[in-house]
Amino acid sequence: MAQRALKALRQAQGFYPERSRRIKKGLFITFEGVEGCGKSTHSKLLFEYLKKSGYLILHTREPGGTKLGESVRRVLLDSSGILISDLAELFLFEACRAEIVKEIIMPALDKGSIVISDRFSDATFSYQGYGGRVDLEAIKTLDRVATTGLVPDLTILLDIDTLEGLRRARKKGIDRMEKKDISYHKRVRSGYLKLSKQYPGRIKRVEVSGEIPEVQAKIRHEVEIVLQKFKRPR
Predict the structure, then answer these.
(1) Domain contains 113
(2) H runs (alpha helix) in 39-170
(3) Range of the domain at 45
(4) Average pLDDT of 39-65?
């Protein structure tokens, strides 16, 4: 029954397993990592750096970036008294992703912009998949329908010890995801590390150690390698 439903969904969306990447003019960079790793800080620092360097650039986040995404973000992170299963989380995140890809990301990439996103598909595999133990094949199918096959050109994985990351994150207050038990967050980190080994050409692990400028320098080094192949729009 479930397999027939997935097949129907693929056909309805014009989904083909062999389509691994969307053709685009721009450059898509994502930031990933466990709670408290510094994604928001470093993605914004990179955005400002590239903007000052003269690139056409956009910064966005997941969940968020659109009216739908920001509304669902409040439900996913700040809701109290609402039970949301890992499977329900999956559908909510993918709904937001489908909208941001169509409304924000692809139009910017088609114009030749660099798009930086604070989280994307790898977060779903790591959190709902490895953390929440939702079937990875089901996630793969839903995610490729939602993204129409869009894959980042570069993913910066900011890696930090799970407990240290949670300690840092909880200084700012505790959201719904951060309230989950430590074993969940350890599985999330393990998932990210597995993905980085599975896709070493795309996912670059950057250890979060030292001061912010030191970590940012490591990130810019990885970005500069990708930028050498990127043609700015004229």
Answers:
(1) yes
(2) 39-52, 67-78, 86-100, 106-110, 121-124, 136-147, 162-169
(3) 26-227
(4) 97
